[in-house]
Amino acid sequence: LTHMSTLDEEKVRGDLEKAKALDTDLIAVMIHWGVEYQTKQNSYQDQVADFLFQNGADIILGGHAHVLQPMELRTVTMPDGTEKQGFVCYSLGNFISAQNDPLTDTTVVLTLELKKDLETNETTIEGFNYRPMLMLDREAGAEVRFQLLDVYAALASGEADKAEAVYRTVAAGLSMKNKRQVMGNLQNPYVHRVFELARFTANEAHYHVEFLRFRELESGILYAPIGPKNNLITFIVPHFADRLPLENFVIHDKIRSIFALHPAGRDWYLVYGDENIRQEKMVLSEGENKYRELFTHFFHTIPIEERKNKGLQRNMLPLRYRDYMTEFQGE
């Protein structure tokens, strides 16, 4: 649906009716529309979005503009007067491309949060977030010419200046003659700060991969609480999902009330809010209590007393991790 084409409303309406007849949970539409290099949708895109929502679409993902355009949850009035909520992203931008036009090197990886009520069989869109990416062109002759720079690691930081640092870094890159080499410009304090934030998040994620402790609940679920400084749960869950594919496990960020749920043999997903996992369900299994006692006893009796070095221990294992580790419980 560019300036060279128009919408065949009858055909689209018929296609949406066929989709609804399949008894789907939600209907997603991918559409080619808009004006190239425009960072905001036009009025015709808004009209088409309303038409698609009113005829059965729940999610609309747009392309063609080659740059990012807005995304939002919208409340739409249906022909019968009722209201429904839908999600539209007018353009996700390029992912990998060799274009040199402004902003064509920015993109996002989109995550939609969907919820199905098993009692009513209704599926709803609860929210969305995205992972911003910046494509770097390392020029012809490089072993890997095009590379996506993941600024998500910096934005996952718990530091207050992260948004300013990332914004200024992107702005600096856009002002450079060779803008795709922006992350090599570490003399720029904002670029250097983004590098620091990303490294700090990555380092803390690495620590959690090493120090995270699962405990078995009476239900058989493996549960691991964490309390990270940075919002890093999505960085560490893939590691455990890869190594424990046949286990039901939960990783709980207690600082942010985020749960990563991994059903055995299926993909993991995030749930937000303490109400989703109640405290009375956190009873440890009999076997867990037994092995916790054995492991803790082993941990405290194996060291050579004369060689204990508290300072070195704190350097290798900061105190803040110990609140969530089995062997330090009760200290």
Give the strand line-up of the largest sheet. 8-9-10-11-12
Q: Specify the overall morphology.
A: flat
Low-confidence stretches: none
Distance between the termini: 65 Å
- β-strand percent reads 15-25%
Q: Report the helical percentage.
A: 25-40%
Q: Topology as H/E string?
A: HEHEEEEEEHHHEEHEEEHHH
Characterize the biggest β-sheet.
5 strands, mixed
Q: Please work out how many helical segments DSSP would assign.
A: 9
Sheet/helix structural class: alpha/beta
Rg: 25 Å
Calculate the mean pLDDT score and round it.
86
**Count of β-strands:** 12
Summarize the structure.
With 331 residues, this protein is α/β, with parallel strands linked by helices. A hairpin with a 4-residue loop joins strand 10 and strand 11.
Task: Give structural notes.
With 331 residues, this protein is α/β, with parallel strands linked by helices. Helices cover 31% and strands 24% of the residues. It has nine helices and twelve strands. The chain has helices spanning 9-21, 43-54, 152-155, 162-175, 189-211, 233-243, 286-301, 310-316, 319-322, and strands spanning 28-32, 59-63, 71-77, 83-89, 106-117, 122-137, 146-150, 215-216, 222-226, 249-253, 258-262, 269-272. It has a five-stranded mixed beta sheet, with helices on one face. The protein has a four-stranded mixed beta sheet with strand order 1-2-4-3, covered by helices on one side. It is flat.
